[in-house]
User: Fold Sigma-B regulation protein RsbU (Phosphoserine phosphatase) from Sporomusa malonica.
Amino acid sequence: MQNTIDTLTMSVINTACVMMVIAYLVIRTGTNLDMLEKTARKKDIAILIVLFGFFSIYAGINAIPVNIGLVSLRHSGPIIGGLVGGPVVGLGAGLIGAADRLFQGGLIGSWKSAVLALVLAGVFSGIYSKYRQKDGVVGVKEAVVFTVVYELFAAGLTFIFAPSIEAAFILEKQVRLPLIIGNMVAVSIFFFFVKNMIEERRNKNIKEQIEHELTVARTIQMSMVPKVFPVPPDVQELEVFAILESAKEVGGDLYDFFYIDDDHFCFVIGDVSGKGVPASLFMAVTKTLIQAKAGVGISSADILYHTNNELCRGNDETMFVTLFCGILDIRTGEVEFSNAGHNKPYLYRKNGLVQMLNPQRGIALGIMEDFSFSNEKIHLSPSDAIIIYTDGVTEAMDNNNEMFSEERLENTITKVGNAAAKEITQSIVTEVKAFANGAPQSDDITILVLRYFGSGGDMENE
Assistant:
């Protein structure tokens, strides 16, 4: 008896390996995946009939002699075929298995019941699959329960066609339990692998869809920030250049610049808490509010005050944004600015001096209503420049988790501060990436550089 069990176990393992190959072929072929999910075309049915019919034949070839009977996993082919492909596939696989079993012959009672059991296995499993109340592929437990119930039904066929009740009892006593166990194992292995591979395919499709949607979202997001930069000779008084590189497909950094009137130029940079789609949506709202609140005679502190109150209302997710807002009077070079918890900007003087501005930082927007922001001023001489940035620059890390730091940023500005705004911006990004040396970008990187030439467009140092 122990020898029989050991032999049966080896047979089940051997057959299960073939089943895994079949499962792989079925699921990796797009056509057959459609069949498993009940969406295949008629011409594809023949493929599965042959596959599961072959499995029934293969199981018969590897049948194990047990005293007066044989233990094989023939029923697995039509059962699986019916459960995944419906009545037509189940019947087709059953007929192939039945034809092979009929060709082998045997005792009259045994081969008649065996042939009929193979055909009915495909028919019954196919009908069950077609009219079950659940959508999708049959689950592992569901398939195992069906297999057990059907094997008990097949035992009844043996009693009907056996020459005598005694002969049927002796046969069933020897083979039915190994048959039930073997087919249970075979069916469960198949549906386990199929279920996992279908889930893998679905996850891949979902991932591709999400990636596509994020790409569209990034395109929309980037379309919201200015892409045309004011530079001489189109604009005589100043030049501006900015760059935004998200750590993910979409991010929460923002920059913006626009004329409030003929003499006042507003420029803004911000960093929303978090990353991804929520941050990008909050960024879009912030940018819209800044432009809506800006106006003739409205100070930078007032812009932040009103924007902050709007962001605080209904902010159930408690998101916030650090933000620097400046307004340049292009006639005088006076810059009025306010800081809402953002990184301190750098000022590059035309004589090569680099200094960090030290404004009162205030609090980030979206945290507390009715907060009064300070309004501060500096004066730009012709060819002076302001460099504002987000913490993705100074906190960029290399493979040793060392940060780029304000010191490295200041050194970079010192080296390239006399260049055009575009070159300064690109040089900083280049230095940051060289420092990171391939380490993953952990935060959005945004830089805006504004250089003032004076009301007459004095470009003496260019």
